[in-house]
Amino acid sequence: MRWLLPEYIEDILPAEAARIERLRRAILDLFAGAGYELVMPPLLEYTDSLLTGTGHDLDVRTFKVVDQLSGRMMGLRADITPQVARIDAHLLNRKGVTRLCYCGSVLHTRPAGPASTREPIQIGAEVFGHAGVESDLEVQRLLCRSLALARVKKLRLDIGHVAVFRSIAHAAKVGAGLEAELFEALQKKDLPSLRGLTRPLDAKTRAALLLLPELYGGAEVLALAEKRLPRLPPLTRALATLRALAKASPVPASFDLAELRGYHYHSGVVFDAYCEGVAGAVGRGGRYDEVGKAFGRARPATGFSIDLRSLASAVGNKARRK
User: Fold this and answer.
1) How far is C-alpha 163 from the chain's CA centre?
2) Which of 28, 182, 191, 229 sees the fewest Cβ atoms within 10 Å?
């Protein structure tokens, strides 16, 4: 049985390959028309550059090999976004706003879910050099236009902001260990653990942290958050950004103020796109200003990526139901 492929690694057969290629061409054309320039980062790099500024999450998802030429450790990319940030910081080194896009396979040590592949095809777009909410809105609109090319149904965005939790934890001078435990409890929506972990904290901080898992829903949760969460400058700015996105969202949007995906990587708004026919998020993105700083050149950055294989599969499933 030497011809068997590893678990969660599959060949793409003609019909599916054709759907993926049609979508790839259409989306890249859309990006080009919106002023995004195509880049093609390598499949593998030395880990000390590949994983710069990305945190533990990406490290454990990255396959690692020893370079037979140099003896140094190399990684097979699990996400193209940090590579594009490196290109912006060190190779292009432009002033002002830069818009870049990409498409390529990535490899994961473990599948994201029971039905997921370990070799997604990632297509995405990034804006560097603009820190305002206008660029957050720009990439969300571009994501929705990209998904519209596949004629997905019931498209919606789920939006959060990592500064909400971070500002509360830092204002209370929570230690790194407790902050990590609180992060895990919020990610899992584990209320009993959250109650136990917050017991030693002051009443105001404890009430704020226990409220976060309840702050999920439409734009009304932003008004509730403004009323009941501490008046901290970073938190106030985060809520203002989310209100602006709520008013201008191109599709129905919900808000989750306990959403901390990529907490050690993202620095502001985070968002996921969901549609009919795909079990998990078909696209995701957010702001990651700190990555440019890790590369030695502080640059505001925001963008998104789409799992092209999941999107094409949803298109194929819809076609088969007709």
Assistant:
1) 15
2) 191
DSSP letters, 83-128, are: HHHHIIIIII--SS-EEEEEEEE---SS-SSTT--SS-EEEEEEEE
Contact criterion met (CB below 8 Å) for 45 and 70: no
CA distance 274 to 157: 6
pLDDT tens-place string over residues 269-315: 999 999 988 888 999 999 998 777 777 787 899 999 999 998 998 87
The residue whose two tokens read 């139901």 is 321
- Evaluate the CA torsion angle 91, 92, 98, 103 in order and state its sign: negative
Cα–Cα distance measured from residue 71 to residue 66, given in angstroms and rounded to the nearest whole number: 6
pLDDT confidence of residue 279: 80
SS3 call for 306: strand
> 22-54: per-residue pLDDT in tens?
999 999 999 999 999 999 999 999 998 888 776
pLDDT above 70 for 261: yes
- Give the number of residues written for the chain: 322
Amino acid identity for residue 291 in this structure:
V
Instruction: Say if CB 306 and CB 123 are below 8 A apart.
Output: yes
Instruction: Render the burial of 186-203: b for 16+ CB within 10 Å, e for the rest.
Output: beeeeeeebeebbeebee
What is the distance, to the nearest Å, from the Cα of residue 210 to the centroid of all Cα atoms in its chain?
Answer: 25
Structure tokens at 214: 């309840």
pLDDT tens per residue, range 95-134? 899 999 999 999 999 998 877 899 999 999 999 999 999 9
Residue 257 has pLDDT above 70, yes or no: yes
Among 116, 82, 90, 137, which residue's Cα sits nearest to residue 266? 82
Rg from Cα positions in the chain: 20
